[in-house]
Amino acid sequence: MTTDVLARPAPASKPETITKVSIIVSRGSLDGVYPALIMANGARAEGIEANLFFTFFGLDAIHRKRHEHIKISTVGNPGLHLATWLGGVPGMSSVMTHYLAQKMEKLDIPSIPEFVEMIADTGAGLYACKASVDLFGLSREDFIDQVTDIITVGEFYAQAAGGQIIFT
Amino acid sequence: MIDTMMAPTVTLAGLTVDVNEEGFFLQPEQWAETMVPELARAEGIADLTDRHWQVIRFMRRQFEEKGTGPTVRVLGKTSGVSIKELYQLFPKGPAKVAARIAGIPKPRGCI
User: Fold this and answer.
1) Is B110 among the catalytic positions?
2) Phi, psi of B10 (to 5 degrees)
3) For chain A: N or C, fewer Cβ within 10 A?
4) Distance of alpha carbon B80 from its chain centroid, rounded?
């Protein structure tokens, strides 16, 4: 038989592959959102089932009016190597975000709205955390159409069963 | 020179080819279109459609032109098949699976 091309028997020592991930997005800054999106999209590209769960300020990434305006935090962000006082100058966050957006465009990294839409197209689920939605006084209409549902933490755990959970 | 001494070989369409442990061709020039139906079946694709072929041939062309296969994002923008449809055609990962079927190395890229 020649059809067992891809039936690759794994060596006994090789760990099992990841088949499912649930990624929690809790922050609403650019550097808080992108890593989660890259990981979710990358998981789907590997054929791994992926779900994104947006909570607290992470909800901005799926907020109809806010997802285009996600900025990098310039205050309390030592990775930027800016003087502390400079990070707080009005407009600094926008300037840095603009600078980064240009670099990202050159590398063909999609903007957050485009990226979220693309991830939805890969078949990943997008969920909003009910507690945060209630806390901020939001409702389904505030979120982009691609959002699958608003769910409770219990529903999140039920849905994450059998996979890995990543908190960002 | 690729060291294929330790690599597994498989027989496709009557020809022996070298693959790595993930099933990617080590020598893309060993690939032929006649191997595609068999490779697709091994990926769980029983019904190979024209849309599958469009993606597989596109991958192959891109590899021949650029020396590397496109990622899913690039496929979605340039192959004429949307990301949604790509995942319907290749649920186990469009770029990865199509690359394996097209006999090219696994595309590298984070997005």
Assistant:
1) yes
2) -135, 160
3) N
4) 17
A62 vs A79: CA distance, rounded Å: 26
CA distance A8 to chain B (A): 7
Chain B residue nearest residue A120, CA to CA:
B84
- Tokens 């694709």 belong to B45
> What residue in A sits closest to B15 (Cα-Cα)?
A2
Q: Is A25 helix (H, G, I), strand (E, B) or coil?
A: strand
Between chain A and chain B, the number of residue pairs with CB atoms below 8 A apart is 68
Q: pTM to 2 decimals?
A: 0.90
Partner residue opposite A3 with nearest CB, options B23, B42, B76: B42
Q: Which residues contact B30 (CB under 8 A, 6 or more apart)?
A: B15, B17, B18, B103
* Contact criterion met (CB < 8 Å) for B38 and A38: no
Q: What is the ipTM of this complex?
A: 0.90
Report which secondary-structure segment, H or E, holds A165: strand A164-167
Q: With CB atoms and an 8 Å threshold, state whether B42 touches A38.
A: no
Considering only CA atoms, give the Rg of chain A: 19
The domains located in chain A, with CATH, are: 21-73+111-167 (3.40.1260.10)
- Bridge partners, residue A49, by sequence: A20
Q: What is the pLDDT of residues A87-103, one digit of tens each?
A: 999 999 999 999 999 99
Compare CB distances from B10 to A2, A41, A121 and report the shortest one's residue. Answer: A2
